[in-house]
Design a protein that fits this description.
With 258 residues, the protein is of the alpha/beta class. An eight-stranded parallel sheet has the order 1-2-3-4-5-6-7-8. Bound molecules: zinc ion. Zinc ion binds next to loops.
């Protein structure tokens, strides 16, 4: 059973949320999913969904593209909820030019995560160096970190590995153009990578262009097994262990459910 370490329910792309949530609950190949908030409203919704659906955990945060009129104090209060396993997605995105504001939100949210002993999920769109610079100068995650949908770069990978930070592979790794991601997937240590769908976005091959669903995590596992000359079961097992090591509260809830 796989752990989809990064997905979204809260998107307008998925019209029938209830049906979709149930399809995950009933899917015997998915152990659990981390439903990731993008702003206060979607973070609240992620927490609510996790309350009544044992496979769902929540990560809450203010995404760099959605910082307008978002209260960090509210985020702090929400983060106290036991179903919250991480702060994110947070980070920097170069498609908007309000970098100073984005940096301020990123730094404050890392500090919240550190205070509450939570890991962070980083969104970095062509900004790996700037995010790393913020870690070194202002606020470094103390309880773990994953760069979701990692944009491949050897130097950045070295920094992350040296700090025991994780990277996560999404549907892009199945694309023919993903040569650099495949090089990274060959060399990342066994204990430092996760898998995610980032659904409903970035559908893997052969479903490119369609709405992505958590069940498509199998295509990402298959590709990693091929690239790392490993087996499907081994990739599933490794990424499962890695997710539970990084998101320690997943373990707690599982024991509680049993
Ligand atoms: Zn995402």
């Amino acid at each position: 059973m796989a752990i989809d370490s990064h997905m979204h329910i809260n998107s307008i792309v998925l019209e029938d949320k209830k049906k979709y949530i149930n399809s995950i609950n009933n899917n015997s190949s998915i152990e659990s999913v981390i439903n990731v908030g993008l702003n206060i409203a979607s973070s609240k919704e992620a927490i609510n969904i996790s309350k009544s659906n044992p496979k769902f955990f929540s990560s809450i945060g203010i995404h760099p593209l959605y910082i307008e009129s978002q209260e960090l104090k509210t985020l702090y209060d929400l983060a106290l909820n036991p179903s919250v396993v991480a702060i994110g997605e947070i980070g920097l995105d170069n498609t908007k030019s309000n970098f100073e504001e984005q940096k301020r939100y990123l730094i404050k949210q890392i500090l919240i995560a550190n205070e509450l002993k939570l890991p962070v999920i980083i969104h970095s769109n062509n900004c790996n160096k700037l995010v790393i610079d913020i870690f070194e100068k202002y606020a470094k995650p103390k309880y773990g970190c994953v760069f979701h949908c990692f944009q491949p770069n050897l130097e950045d990978l070295k920094y992350l590995v040296d700090n025991d930070f994780y990277i996560s592979f999404a549907g892009r790794i199945t694309y023919k153009t993903a040569k650099k991601s495949i090089e990274i997937a060959k060399i990342v240590p066994n204990n430092l990578f996760l898998i995610e769908t980032d659904s409903p976005y970035i559908s893997p091959e052969p479903l490119r262009g369609e709405i992505n669903e958590s069940s498509n995590i199998k295509y990402i596992i298959n590709k990693l097994a091929e690239v790392r000359q490993s087996s499907y079961e081994e990739i599933e097992k490794i990424t499962n262990e890695n997710a539970k090591r990084l998101f320690t509260k997943i373990k707690l809830k599982k024991y509680a459910v049993i």
